[in-house]
Design a protein that fits this description.
It is a single chain. The model is unreliable at 163-169 (pLDDT under 50). The chain is built from 13 helices and eight strands. The chain starts with a helix and ends in a 14-residue tail after the last helix. 40% of the residues are buried. Helix 1 crosses helix 6 (168-190) and helix 1 (2-30) crosses helix 11 (295-308). The protein has a domain at 44-282: Spore Coat Polysaccharide Biosynthesis Protein SpsA, Chain A (Alpha-Beta Complex), CATH 3.90.550.10. It has helices at residues 2-30, 57-65, 87-92, 110-117, 139-144, 168-190, 217-227, 248-268, 275-278, 280-293, 295-308, 314-335, 344-367, and strands spanning 44-50, 74-80, 99-103, 125-130, 134-135, 152-162, 201-204, 231-243. Helix content is 50%, strand content 14%. It has 381 residues and is of the alpha/beta class.
Length: 381
């Protein structure tokens, strides 16, 4: 029980604190792996995935048409996954400005849509976006300049979440993303970051490979590019802005779906977990993704083993009290989740537990045969 307790606690600490320290250490030992950036203007295809996005698609298309890039070199395609609202009609209203609509013949999810459209894209570079992701005007230029380096096969930009007053879910999401972005910067500096960002990432069109319908495209596709010997780098000056899920429950459902699909994708790309073949990138994938998703298992093991050790010595009694207090605060955060303002002492533990319970639920559902292929808007209508 002592071994289980210390191992579980050590793994939790490693995932959230040890791994960033390891990245810093590797940066010190190996140095920053730079890549060439140059102002270039290749043909670019911007693909926007949409399902029932009548509330935001017009704004997104106006935003896309105002991007600082030559109009004759920017192809804009909207993939409608059998939208049943006015999305398609709104997109067709932009046809005279060059926007193309690809309506799927049957609803199959975002990944199926990309499989159908990307191989026929005119652009040498393909940028993937969501209907609610509004781009900074310079996004395309900032993204494509990285492809001046022949070793770069994918580029991931930066998502930023708008915070409304009292929107504690999005506030928590921003805390989480600031931590994630720090990891991305360090991983990119060492070679490649693990995964992309569905709202804002780009690839060389020739490197796209067909995906399984249940694959999380912005996770598996960049991994496929790394397997092909190219880098996935981070572009910190390409910004995408969007609203968060607006409630903890909506964010929970979104994260369950993401982990379910990402876990399945990681298992299909498990060769990347071999350090003998893929070097330090395998350590990154194990640390940043695999172990991160397993943190809820380590949390359960740490608490249960601690309960068996309370009579051994005072240290274990203190530890079980600290763990109990943490989960108590998380429980209070759960009860206060509908309030407009929640003290950080409550909502940080609650959000931490929420994210990790979502990971565990996503993994368990995967092995129960539950897969997610289609996508539903998580935002309020």
């Amino acid at each position: 029980m002592e071994i289980l307790f210390y191992l579980s606690v050590a793994l939790i600490i490693y995932v959230y604190a040890g791994y960033p320290v390891l990245l810093l250490l590797m940066k010190h030992l190996r140095g920053q792996r730079l890549h060439r950036q140059q102002e270039i203007e290749p043909k670019v295809t911007l693909i926007i995935s949409a399902y029932n996005e009548e509330d935001v698609i017009a704004k997104k298309l106006k935003n896309s048409l105002e991007l600082d890039y030559p109009a004759d070199k920017l192809e804009i395609i909207v993939i409608s996954d059998q939208s049943s609202d006015a999305t398609d009609e709104i997109v067709q209203g932009f046809a005279d400005r060059g926007v193309k609509l690809h309506r799927m013949s049957e609803r199959g999810g975002k990944t199926m849509g990309l499989n159908a459209v990307v191989p026929n894209a005119e652009g040498e570079i393909v940028i993937f976006s969501d209907a609610n992701a509004m781009y900074d005007r310079n996004v395309v230029r900032m993204m494509v300049r990285n492809f001046a380096d022949s070793e770069v096969g994918a580029v991931t930009g930066e998502s930023r979440y708008a915070i409304d007053e009292g929107d504690t879910s999005t506030d928590s999401e921003n805390l989480y993303w600031r931590y994630e972005l720090a990891l991305k910067r360090m991983e990119s500096g060492l070679g490649s970051l693990v995964g992309g960002d569905g709202a804002i990432y780009a690839i060389r069109q020739k490197l796209y490979r067909q995906l399984n319908p249940s694959d999380l495209s912005d996770f598996v596709n960049p991994l496929q590019i790394v397997v092909q010997g190219y880098r996935n780098v981070y572009e910190g000056e390409a910004f995408s802005y969007e609203k968060g899920g607006e409630s903890f429950e909506k964010e929970f459902r979104r994260k369950v779906r993401i982990v379910n699909r990402a876990w399945r994708g990681m298992m299909s790309m498990r060769q990347l977990l071999n350090p003998l073949r893929y070097g330090f990138f395998a350590i990154q994938a194990i640390s940043h993704k695999l172990l991160r998703w397993l943190v809820p298992v380590f949390m359960v093991c740490a608490f249960v083993s601690n309960l068996f050790l309370v009579e051994v010595e005072p240290f274990y009694r203190v530890m079980v009290l600290l763990q109990s207090a943490f989960y108590l605060f998380a429980g209070i955060g759960l009860l206060k989740r509908e309030q407009t303002e929640i003290s950080k002492i409550f909502y940080v533990p609650y959000y931490f537990c929420l994210v990790n319970w979502a990971s565990l639920k996503g993994i368990l559902e995967n092995y129960q045969g539950h897969t997610y292929t289609v996508w539903n808007t998580v935002r309020e209508r």
